[in-house]
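Page 37, top half.
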Amino acid sequence: MIRAFKIPPQVVKEVYTGSEEFRAELRDSVGKTRDLCSELGLVNPVTRRIWKAMGIWAEPRA
């Protein structure tokens, strides 16, 4: 789509990677997976740091 409509890279960056709304949506989209991993004991200090580094960590829901 980006190539087909010749959307400039700066616009893509601004809308997606540079947007707090996008980061929040991405973080929320993996919420159920994140909660399940936590519930199954698959989250440890190392994996938590990876999730945080990727910007997709939020504390699991109770």
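Page 37, bottom half:
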Amino acid sequence: MTAPLRRYGTVRILVAEDDVRLADLLAQSLAEAGWAVDLVHDGTDAYGRALEEGNGFDVLLLDRMLPGTDGATVCRRLRHAGVTTPVLMLTARGEVRDRISGLDAGADDYLPKPFDLDELLARLRALHRRSSYDEEGVLTVGDLVVDADAHRVRRGGTEIELSAREFAILRLLVANAGKVVSRYSILDEVWDGETDLRSNVIDVHLATIRAKIDKPFGTSTITTVRGAGYRVETGR
């Protein structure tokens, strides 16, 4: 299974959970979904690892009631230290005041236990997408310009209209220009894994994208890498 993509490499997540069985389950499930997982079991280690990495992790998954230093305190101290990595906080407590205290500490999202694993993965993907796209700004490959903030595409001086899904696919490919992006990664990032890999929906969308960004200009930006995925060529 191919890892979810970050702009320059594999997506990394730090999981801080003191319930060893749950921690192992989370680490296994995330690894199977393609994430690179670092696992710790107390707040002191979580703070130390996250601080040491700076913003090297793409997402932090913190349990609210960690031993040593609780998750909210870890999050607050990291924010004060300038670490802006998105944080999803887990807790056995579902009261509003606990959610508020976690969010006020700097968490970006909050999920009470027990939780559905698919929902957890979807929330983590959403946090990663949001932070990745916020960092992208304007992406360029040759004379092709993808403006993530303005949601606009142009080639040379020509504006190109894409649907929301076509834009999301192109943005993902251009953000990883020169690298092969697998079909799984496209489904995971653009469709949240809701479409069957055997479906031709990606091929249909890519054919439309190529007809808009390449055919009128006599160019070939997106290469199909048989059995692997798709790649935006940087030298064209």
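Margin note: Confidence is low (pLDDT under 50) at residues 5-9.
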